[in-house]
Design a protein that fits this description.
This protein is α/β, with parallel strands linked by helices and 132 residues long. The protein has a single domain, classed as 2,3-Dihydroxybiphenyl 1,2-Dioxygenase, domain 1. It contains two helices and eight strands, in the order E-H-E-E-E-E-H-E-E-E. The protein has a four-stranded mixed sheet, with helices on one face. Strands 5-8-7-6 form a four-stranded mixed sheet, with helices on one face. Helix 1 packs across helix 2. The chain is globular and about 50 Å long.
Length: 132
């Protein structure tokens, strides 16, 4: 049996602002944008519609505020942390943690917020040790 993650849902206040953040900051494309029974939906991601991505869903009118407990909502692996942070800086997003490195693994990481305050950890994985 194989299990994979398909999508993660993030609640947002403004679909257009969220779409711009994911496109400009991470290069995610719009995979689907439409409505179901009058409810707007936006699917963004780095690949195809059948690959892992994010559903950006607006908060209902009068909905509860987004809950923030200091834990990451999402961890993204990138090939080049510095290039990703430069893209994010170009759209006004600066890390509030890092960039830092894990001395043991060699992983480099930084924490940023999206327009709705979701905490995102951006990680460039270190070299994988040879088990032999």
């Amino acid at each position: 049996m194989t299990t994979t993650i398909g999508r993660t849902v993030l609640l947002c206040h403004d679909l257009d602002a969220s779409a711009a953040f994911w496109a400009d900051g991470f290069g995610f494309g719009t995979l689907f944008r439409g409505e179901t029974d009058g409810f707007p939906l936006l699917h963004v991601g780095p690949g195809r519609v059948d690959e892992p991505g994010l559903w950006l869903v607006p908060l209902p009118a009068g909905g509860a505020p987004l809950v923030r407990h200091g834990l990451p909502n999402l961890v993204l692996y990138v090939d080049d942390l510095d290039a990703t942070l430069a893209r994010l800086a170009a759209v006004g997003v600066e890390p509030f943690v890092g960039p830092d490195a894990d001395a043991e693994s060699g992983d480099r990481f930084a924490h940023v917020h999206d327009p709705d305050g979701h905490r995102i950890v951006v990680v460039q994985l270190g070299p994988v040790a040879d088990p032999a």
